[in-house]
């Protein structure tokens, strides 16, 4: 999991550590602690899926596959345009 997060090609190298994830979860007291075991696992899995997709540096022919390059970035790489449009 998070195979290339500390690769030199990733601008977020060294940013996503196990300790940082644990510290961040302490800021959200209900995270992964509400509901039965399956509900808690689903919440954590959904968080990892969303954040890994949003931080991916992968490309179609990437070594180990495109999805092994999640947690490569920590900010937008190009102008995303408007997330919300008034109309």
Automatic annotation (TrEMBL):
<keyword id="KW-0146">Chitin degradation</keyword>
<protein>
    <submittedName>
        <fullName>Basic endochitinase</fullName>
    </submittedName>
</protein>
<feature type="domain" description="Glycoside hydrolase family 19 catalytic">
    <location>
        <begin position="10"/>
        <end position="32"/>
    </location>
</feature>
<dbReference type="InterPro" id="IPR000726">
    <property type="entry name" value="Glyco_hydro_19_cat"/>
</dbReference>
<dbReference type="GO" id="GO:0006952">
    <property type="term" value="P:defense response"/>
</dbReference>
<keyword id="KW-0611">Plant defense</keyword>
<comment type="function">
    <text>Defense against chitin-containing fungal pathogens.</text>
</comment>
<dbReference type="GO" id="GO:0016998">
    <property type="term" value="P:cell wall macromolecule catabolic process"/>
</dbReference>
<dbReference type="GO" id="GO:0004568">
    <property type="term" value="F:chitinase activity"/>
</dbReference>
<keyword id="KW-0624">Polysaccharide degradation</keyword>
<dbReference type="InterPro" id="IPR023346">
    <property type="entry name" value="Lysozyme-like_dom_sf"/>
</dbReference>
<dbReference type="GO" id="GO:0006032">
    <property type="term" value="P:chitin catabolic process"/>
</dbReference>
<dbReference type="Pfam" id="PF00182">
    <property type="entry name" value="Glyco_hydro_19"/>
</dbReference>
<keyword id="KW-0119">Carbohydrate metabolism</keyword>
